[in-house]
């Protein structure tokens, strides 16, 4: 037997062919391993520092941003993990951004899982980040942001955070800028320490910023940091302090800087709601302390507050509000109030409600710059602000809590368009009557062109006066009226101080309590007679009445004041001034029947709007009393009474012109003759400043006015 081993030349050709590729593969594998080992060895020895510039170039191409390392750089296997170390590392922002870098760090030291760079989600075994800074910014058109790489219009890719098993992040801050909202925030992040890819506890943030021109400070907590790192939902709470207001926001965001379409629960409280809205350049009347909550959803450039509810002062508020931040800031709101305290309504005419509540209307008017003893506020309209935003408002109010006048069912529609403010219609129920008004403040004209048109439907006088201590029972008289004025001015006082127009209140047929009427008529005989007969509450019948004024240049003159009752004709002269709020009126009752003891003298109404006075003992009454005393001394006691006798020669009024609200020139007696005992709607003064009387018949037996 031949036991000699076969040589290579003696092997079959097929076996020789199979062994050769094996050897080649073996040699190639050995070569690759040798090369890899050599690369590993070179990288390990050099720490890969020579790869700095290739790394910057490749990373820049992948991100579309400039990537630079201005300090030490290391990139090598240690031994099977990729070691990455960089000092003064930066990733640039797009050219349109206001800051040069999206991200920068004083130092990054990390270990990377090699295969995660090729397959699946990138993974870091550990990360040590020091002195980091992140810049999150939107462009002016809100179409691109700094944290999305590539072309935003073509669906750029946002920054994808890797999985990090262990991490320490210290001294890191975040800057957020939204130029469309004019919002800037600089935040510092608390030191973060994570293990097993879990941060666990909430991550705190705090910092300062500015929204529009208002500085603020805030604290926030990211309640779900692990989900945030893994690009999951982000549960966030935030509290900010700005302009004496505290704002709380809570919600879950799909990404850390994306609030689009996300419902956020918001709360705000502070001393004045006007200060809160003033942050976004919206002007509203000032309020007392408020507390509101709502759900906020951002949709494009619209911020929608729904399920709004809360209080301001002693009043409640509910509804919805949409703020649109377009070419012009626009507010659209629908609000409802069940109960509005009258003090909380004071700001709508320019008063500070806190001053009204503590010191009254006169003090509140003085705080606006009004002269002493005036009640019309001198608070100027916020012209500049009114011209930079537009608004629509529909506001309904159930009841207005008032001490004197019962007001309810308020329905207000407001429109502000480039400085032209229109309250139309503004309606409400008052003492079982109805008031409808249309008010315009047009600040496009300088000074503002203002128009007041206020209409009072027939309203029971007993109910209307009940709040002032007049019992309602026994009074069936009603009153209706209209105020039409046009003026110029940026305050209510200025607009009325130069206003022109007409004021008229009409009293159709009805009844009024004797004790309320006879005293104003100063018919002492009838009053005393009824008092002794215990008939003080017997109503006096009113045939018709008109309290009319013609207003010229802020001065209102009686035109006419004429009330025809069953037994008397009440006449009034004089007027009042919106300029200095002075009152100078006289009322006189002429009897239609004989009255034994009648003052036959005007009752004066003087003083100011804030502090009116009644002059019951007028010069005419004093003169008549003097005459009676003289007759009593030199004639007989009976003669003294004659000075107070009213022979009852008053001419009844034709109610047609009265009920039509006609001026004095159109008034007639029941016989159809023009009346010569009513004012002409004008006032005049002598050169020495004394008022002139307007009585066209100075020889009349009874002086009807004190002017």
Show the helix and strand layout:
Blueprint: H1 13-46, H2 52-63, E1 67-69, E2 73-77, E3 82-92, E4 101-112, E5 123-130, E6 133-138, E7 148-149, E8 157-158, E9 163-170, E10 172-178, E11 183-189, E12 192-194, E13 203-211, E14 214-222, H3 225-229, E15 234-242, E16 245-253, E17 264-270, H4 273-278, E18 290-299, E19 302-312, E20 315-325, E21 329-341, H5 342-345, H6 353-359, H7 361-367, H8 383-386, E22 389-401, E23 407-417, E24 420-430, E25 433-442, E26 449-460, H9 461-465, E27 478-488, H10 492-497, E28 500-507, E29 510-513, H11 514-521, H12 524-532, E30 539-552, E31 555-565, E32 568-577, E33 582-591, E34 603-608, E35 612-615, H13 619-634, H14 637-642, H15 655-659
Parallel strand pairs: 5-9, 6-10, 21-22
Antiparallel strand pairs: 1-3, 2-3, 3-4, 4-5, 4-6, 7-8, 9-12, 10-11, 11-13, 13-14, 14-15, 15-16, 16-17, 17-18, 18-19, 19-20, 20-21, 22-23, 23-24, 24-25, 25-26, 26-27, 27-28, 28-30, 29-30, 30-31, 31-32, 32-33, 33-34, 34-35
Helix pairs in contact: 6-7
Q: How would you portray this structure in words?
A:
With 707 residues, this protein is an alpha+beta fold. The protein has a domain at 50-258. Helices cover 19% and strands 42% of the residues. The protein contains 15 helices and 35 strands. The strands form two sheets. It has a 33-stranded mixed β-sheet that branches. A two-stranded antiparallel ribbon has the order 7-8. The longest helix is centred in the N-terminal third of the chain and has 34 residues, at 13-46. It is rod-shaped and about 150 Å long. The termini are far apart.
